Amino acid sequence: MSTTIRHVLGISGGKDSAALAIYLRHRHPELEMDYYFCDTGKELPETYTLISNLENYLGQKITHLDAVTGSPEDSFDHFVQVYGGYLPSSSARWCTKKLKLEPFERYVGTDPVVSYVGIRGDEDREGYISRKPNIQSIFPFRRNMWSEDVVQRVLQPDALPRLRGLYAELSEPAARARLLALAEAPVSRSFTRPQKLNALLAADVKLFNQVVFQLLRDTAYPLAQAPDFALLDNDENLIREDIFRLLRESGVGVPAYYEKRTFEVDGQTGEYARSRSGCYFCFFQQKIEWVWLYEQHPEKFAQAMAYEKDGYTWMEESLTELIKPERIRQIKLDALKKQRKTTTAASPFLLDTLDDEEGIGCASCFI
Question: Where would I find the Phosphoadenosine phosphosulphate reductase domain in this sequence (predicted)?
């Protein structure tokens, strides 16, 4: 096992991980970052275009990880056979485990690793935290860049004396009394852990980062071995609009599947797009996204439909049923009704319409 900390960033093919690579290269070029992409073999062409553009921007190759080596089939098809034709679903996500998480953990091995994850400041989800003690997740787009397990350790009752001591040592005299009152306040029903975390962050994000970094010294986390950490002065909170701005201004560009395409139904015009990266047949996508796939990538839809056999389907209705003309008409009408309620004219992408779907799914696939 190496004692040198590796810094790794997984590129999913989605907007957030690509924007994070751009952001960190610009803000922290001193980080020697390894970039990787878990290639299922079932991505849309737009995904590979994004990865190529990102490689050109970074001036660095992105390592492609295959879940299976030595097989005549791509990784997904290999595991479909292993599972006897049983397709993954929201309740049986073997695709995430076998095609994303296990290849990543083999890639990093036993080295101490800091893994950078592109979950934004306007998202209420945690993302993937490895159970392996040599992997630590950091979330640079959030005001709180630390993972939930680290926060629990820092704010647990046993850590109060050390927490208070570090705030006494590191804070400025003018703010010390207020910060110490927050630091020594115990978590309770009237002052929950999220409330205490937010109070400490609101008081001084950079100071909180310094305190957490010092508290990690007594742990087995990879950053316990580091003499310093470049992101301790980060106090930004990036939201979705910032992500699209980073992609555009860098020249990497927004993945083409986020762009609006028009459709017509009953003399009305609507718009559709894709809300996520990942496999073209992802079971988390909305019905209107399946229609988008059918009309924008008919060859991919046909391949997705070919998997539906032996009674297995991607969702509660089969793709054969979904593409019947009357069913497509109803799906488009439903999507049009939703768009009229939520979409703002100023948005060049279907951001507002897709907002409630964006957080659904596996962070390792979509960010």
Answer: 7-125
Question: What is the average per-residue pLDDT within 13-34?
Answer: 96
What CATH number labels 6-146+234-250?
A: 3.40.50.620
CB 353 within 8 A of CB 339: yes
- Amino acid (1-letter code) at residue 116: Y
Q: How far is CA 68 from CA 23, 64, 111, 133, in A?
A: 32, 12, 22, 25
b/e string for 276-295 if b means 16 or more Cβ within 10 A? bbbbbbbbbbbbbbbbbbbe
**What is the pTM for the complete model shown?**
0.90
Could you give the 3-state DSSP secondary structure of residue 137? Answer: strand
Quick: pLDDT tens for 27-57: 999 999 999 999 999 999 999 999 999 999 9
User: Would you kindly state where each structural domain of the chain is located, as residue ranges?
Assistant: 6-146+234-250, 151-227, 256-366
Rounded mean pLDDT of 96-113? 94
CA–CA distance, 234 with 287 (Å, rounded to integer): 39
- Of 136, 148, 137, which is closest to residue 222 (Cα–Cα)? 136
Euclidean distance between the first and final Cα of the chain, in Å? 29
Q: 3-state SS of 112-135?
A: CEEEECCCCCCCCCCCCCCCCCCE
Query: What's the chain's length in residues?
Result: 367
Dihedral sign from CA coordinates of 194, 196, 201, 206: negative
Coil, strand or helix at 323 = coil
Q: If you average pLDDT over residues 289-297, what whole number do you get? A: 97
Q: What's at 315, amino acid-wise?
A: M
Long-range contacts of 174-179 (CB under 8 A, 24+ apart): 175/203, 175/204, 178/203, 179/203, 179/204, 179/207
Show the CA angle centred on residue 199, arms to residues 197 and 203, nearest 5°.
Answer: 120
Residue 345 has pLDDT above 80, yes or no: no
Contact in structure between 116 and 12 (CB atoms under 8 Å): no
